[in-house]
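SEQUENCE-TO-STRUCTURE ENTRY
===========================
Question of interest: how does this chain fold, as expressed in C-alpha cells?
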Amino acid sequence: GKMANPLKIRSGEITGVPGHQSWINRAGARAQLYAAGFKELDFGKPIVTVAAPYLSYHMCNQKFRELADEIASALASKDIMAYVSHQPVISDGQTMGTAGMSYSLVSRDLIADCIELMHEGYRADAMITVAGCDKTLPGVLMPIARGNSIGITLYGGTGHSGEHKGKILTPGSPYEAVGSVASGTMDIEELHKIECNACPTSGSCSGMFTANTMSTCIEALGMALPGTSTRPAVDRDSNKVSAAKRKDCVDSVEALLNLMAKGIRARDIMTLKAFENAITVMMALGGSTNGVLHLLALANEAEVPLTIDHFNKVADRVPLIGNLTPSGEYNVVHLDAVGGLPPVLRLLLDAGLFHGDCLTVTGKTWAENLAGVAPPALSQRVVFPLSAPIAKPGNHVIILSGNICPGGAVIKMSGKHLEPFFGPAKCYDSEQLALAGIQAGAIKKGDVLVIRYQGPRGAPGMPEMLSPGAALVGAGLGAHVPLVTDGRFSGASHGIMIGHIVPEAQNGGPLALIKENDIVEIDLNRRVLNLQISDEELAARQAAWVAPAAKHPIRTVLGRYASHVGDASHGAVLS
C-alpha cells in the first residue's frame, strides 16, 4: 500500500486512516464525503481550512470567493483537499454613525470563533485565512494563534487611490466633506463628486487606515508573506482581481506546505519580539489606533505577555517616516509602488529598530527574507529617511494615564504638536447627539468634546467616532477641539483624538462622572489626561452614579458580547 501522507496530521480522525481500525469505523463519514465530491484517493490527502469572510456588496471583501477558489485550486494541485468556508464581515465604512457600527468590533471575535469552529470541527491539518476589511485582519489570524495551528494569512489587498481636482482622495474624504457642507464651505455638487471618486475600485481602504495598518503589522509579525500587505486587490481599470494577487494565493499555498513539512506553528512565529516588530511598523508608518486594540487581542490568543505599556516603549524609539494618509500625502498603493513594506523593514533593521532574528511564514527569519532588499530610494517622498523623519519618536500613537483614564487611553498625534491644554468639557452620551451639537455650532475652539458610553460594554461594541471627528475637521475645529471618548476612532480620523478610555463609562469609570464645563487637562509631555476636580468630589460623584441598563437582551449577539467583553487596554477580548 501507499505510504501515509506525513502532512495529514489529524484529519484522519474524520476520513479514517487506511490499514487502521479507524478506516472501517469512518465509513459513515466517507459515504457523505463521496456524495460531496471526494474520490477514493482523496481520503489519504491532508485537509486544509480555507476561510475568507465575504459579502457581495463590500469593497474590501467582495472578491473573496474568487480568492478562496484560487487558493483551493492551488491546494488541489498539491494533492490537498481545501475545506472552503466564508465568514461574516461588517463594513465600518457602510455602518459608521449608525446602530450597525456596534457590530463591527463584535465581528472580529465572531469571525475568529467561526474559523475555529470550522477548523477544529473538521479536524483540519492547517489553514489559510484571507483578510480584507479592518476587523477581518485580526479576526482571521486570532484562530490560527488560538489553537497554535499551522497557518498563514493573506491580505486580499488595498483599494486604488481616489482622485479629484488633482488631489488624492481616501474613503475618509466624503466624511470630512460632510463636515465642510455643514459649515458652509462646500456645496452639495462638490460633495457628490467627492463621494463618486473617493473609492475607485474594490479593495480595502486606500490610506494607512486600520486595514492597511493591520496588513503591514501582520506582515511584520511574520504571519503573511513579505510584500503581500501593500499589494492592490485589483487592476485599476478592470476592477478584476490582479495577476499579482492571484500569484499571492499560489505563493501562500507553497509557503503553507513548507510550514506543514517543517511543523512550524503560529506561536513559533508570534513571539513577543515579533509583536514588537509589528508595533514598530505601526509607529513608523503612522498606523491606526486600532492597531493597539488588535495587537493586544492577537497577543492574548498567542499567550504572549504583551501589555499596553509596551506601546510607549516602542513609540519612544521609532520615528514617524510614513508620509501616508490620513495625516500624510500618499495612499498605500504609492507605498507599494516604491517596493512595499520590505524596503521599510530593511531601513528599520539597519537602524537597529527591528528584530531580524524573528521567524516568518517563509520558514526563514526576517534577516534572511530581507537579504537582497534595499531601503527605499531617496528620490521618493512616500517614506522619509530616519535621519529626517516626519516626526521624532514618541509623536504618533501614545498611551495616556491620569484620573480620567486610570486604566489607560490612546491618543493619535501623527506628528502634530499639542501644547498642554486646559478646556471645558462638553459632554454627550451618544455619537448622534454629539454630531448634532457640532452641526448646531455648540462646540467652540478650546472646548473638549466628550462622547461617552461608547465602550466595548456600553455601546456595546466600541464603535468608531469618525462622523463627529470628521465634522470637527470639516468645521475647522480639528486642531482646536480634542475629542475624548471610551469609543474607538477610525483609521481615517485625524485631529486631536483620545479614545479607548479605561475604565469605560458603562463600568462607572471617571469618564461617566464628568460634568458639563468641568476643566479637562491634556499634557502630552507628562502623557496625562486629567479632570481638574478633587479626589473627594470624584468619590462623591462615583457614589451617586447609577449604571445605565444594558441596551440589548442577553439572547442577542450584542447582549452576549456586552456581558463577556473585557476592557480596551487588554484588547477588548472575550472572557
